[in-house]
Amino acid sequence: MSLSDLSAALVASANHAARCGPFFVVINAGSGRHDSHEQQALIARMLEQGGRAYEFLRVDEPARIGEVARRAVELAQARQGVVVAAGGDGTINAVASAVLGSGCPFGVLPQGTFNYFGRAHAIPQDTEAAARALLGAGVAPVQVGQVNGKLFLVNASLGLYPQLLEDREAWKLRFGRSRFVAFLSGIATLLQSRKQLQLQIELAGQAVALRTPTLFIGNNPLQLSRVGIDDAHTEAVDHGQLAAIVVRPIGTLALLGLAVRGVLGQLGDADNIDSFSFRRLTVRPKSIRRIKVATDGEIAWMRTPLVFEVAAQPLLLLMPAPADRAEVA
Fold first, then answer.
1. Does the residue 329 lie in any domain?
2. Which domain range does residue 257 map to?
3. Angle at CA 71, nearest 5°, toward 84 and 75?
């Protein structure tokens, strides 16, 4: 979807807010590896140097992030401002969920471990550079995925992948936040993996039964390309679809082999991987009424069937001006 597909009044209001409106920054005190108070002071200094009004809304309790994000949207709507999420992909997801459909522009200050959403849109990973980039950014529509109405910007999954995420968080609490710790925790989870899901998937009016340890739905071309998924599917995500990755039933050693292939960017070449693109997909796990689903790293129980689809409305993302864009890496 392009800006030309949106109403003229909405586009004009969003662009005005992006150029002149105040920033309402939802900052997660628990995200990232840096002191949140230092990061807040740094962001404030950059915005003050740019002559822009701002207000911080701190999240000190994770359970309150939705409430705080909704308050930020109310303030932005009342004062023709911009809602900004400062945190990792989970924080960005929670704030984006409140922003979607509000008409407010959405800014991002990445502070997590992987930051796939920010990296995919050339947003600097350095807080100072990202804050400076907000000042000259323009509005661009960005595709959103949903599962049973819950938003995801990067990915959604069920089966083995949510277990990997749960174990990764436990390892991070013990050993610290780093990509190396995340990788080691993943290996440990794969060594203990035994479960297979029995699913019926419905796509374009046809139903197919399959067994798999995990179903992964991607909405981020950068993440898909980094693990080596076919260019056709990454391009499909760029053009209004989602990408599904299904692992065929395999043993522990084969799963470890897939993990190595993913790190090397060769997952799409594996014989025991199937992938396809879609706009709407219904998934019915056999004999399961509720199942764990991960969305952008956060895990929740959902009732079945699961409906994965492209959201009807895009996010109005503040995209850095060319001079402020980071190299996509």
1. no
2. 155-295
3. 75
